[in-house]
């Protein structure tokens, strides 16, 4: 099937109220343009240099979402234009984003990434760390970050029950964090969870954003885990 056929097929499964982030990492700007021409405007990337290149080559009304682990020395490349950083996964990264956003005189939209999977390799706050951080003066002092919600990744497994369980756990953390720390913040409303293999489960469990790449663009070539 072509990219456009894939895209239409995925799009048809997404209820209104859930936003589809078309994850274009490793795919060419031409392939992004194909999807863009259907009037889709929301794309996700996970490597800063690649995101900057596509930003430069493609139309400026694309909303670029950064979804991968972000090294602090690369933040500066994406801060001037990024629409939403899904993967704010540590206090250190949060503080560095704040610094760069301030330099750029921007308020940058971010999600806080929560570690819900069994795998040790997935980044993010535990629910305890998250609550500790949100109570801190450090968090309250930040003026250049707008926290719009939470993001998480489930374990890569065939065990559908486990995936349901992990997404449900994230939804519960979202609900409790919202009432404890963001009850007066209407912008805290996004729950980014679900990828090609599990986005339908994520939607059942309350995702407001899903990040789908390979089901739209095709299998990716293996890429290095670094950066
Ligand atoms: C690559 C990636 C995706 C998309 O993965 P697919 O399985 O290709 O849909 C979603 N979220 C994150 C954080 C990613 O790095």
The gist of it:
The protein has 227 residues and is an alpha/beta fold. It has helices at 3-11, 29-36, 48-57, 75-78, 91-103, 127-135, 137-141, 160-181, 199-204, 214-217; strands at 19-23, 42-45, 63-66, 84-88, 108-114, 145-152, 190-193, 209-212. The model has no long low-confidence stretch (mean pLDDT 95).
Q: What does this protein structure show overall?
A:
By secondary structure, this protein is an alpha/beta fold. It has one domain (3-217): Alanine racemase (TIM Barrel, Alpha-Beta Barrel). It is 40% helix and 18% strand. The protein contains 10 helices and 8 strands. Strands 7-6-5-4-3-2-1-8 form an 8-stranded parallel sheet. Strand 4 (84-88), helix 5 (91-103) and strand 5 form a beta-alpha-beta unit. The longest helix is centred in the last third of the chain and has 22 residues, at 160-181. The two termini are 31 Å apart. The relative contact order is 0.16. The model has no long low-confidence stretch (mean pLDDT 95). The structure holds pyridoxal-5'-phosphate. The site of pyridoxal-5'-phosphate has 14 residues, from strand 8 and helix 10. Pyridoxal-5'-phosphate is lined by residues 23, 25, 46, 67-68, 153, 195-197, 211-215.
Q: What's the structural blueprint in terms of helices and strands?
A:
Elements: H1 3-11, E1 19-23, H2 29-36, E2 42-45, H3 48-57, E3 63-66, H4 75-78, E4 84-88, H5 91-103, E5 108-114, H6 127-135, H7 137-141, E6 145-152, H8 160-181, E7 190-193, H9 199-204, E8 209-212, H10 214-217
Parallel strand pairs: 1-2, 1-8, 2-3, 3-4, 4-5, 5-6, 6-7
The chain binds pyridoxal-5'-phosphate (PLP).
């Amino acid at each position: 099937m072509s990219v456009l056929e894939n895209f239409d097929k995925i799009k048809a499964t997404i209820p209104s109220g859930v936003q589809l982030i078309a994850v274009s990492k490793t795919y060419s700007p031409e392939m992004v343009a194909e999807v863009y021409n259907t009037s889709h405007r929301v794309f996700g990337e996970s490597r800063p240099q690649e995101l900057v290149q596509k930003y430069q080559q493609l139309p400026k009304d694309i909303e670029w979402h950064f979804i991968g682990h972000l090294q602090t020395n690369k933040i500066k490349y994406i801060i001037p234009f990024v629409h939403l950083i899904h993967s704010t996964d540590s206090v250190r990264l949060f503080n560095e984003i704040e610094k760069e956003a301030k330099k750029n005189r921007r308020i940058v939209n971010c999600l806080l990434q929560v570690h819900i999977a069994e795998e040790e390799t997935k980044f993010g706050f535990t629910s305890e760390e998250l609550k500790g951080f949100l109570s801190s003066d450090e968090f309250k002092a930040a003026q250049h970050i707008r926290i719009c919600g939470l993001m998480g990744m489930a374990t890569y497994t065939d065990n559908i029950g486990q995936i349901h369980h992990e997404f449900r756990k994230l939804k519960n953390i979202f609900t409790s964090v919202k009432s404890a720390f963001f009850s007066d913040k209407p912008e805290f409303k996004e729950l980014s969870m679900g990828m090609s293999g599990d986005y339908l489960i994520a939607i059942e469990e309350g995702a407001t954003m899903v990040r789908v790449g390979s089901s739209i663009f095709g299998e990716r070539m293996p890429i290095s885990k670094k950066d």
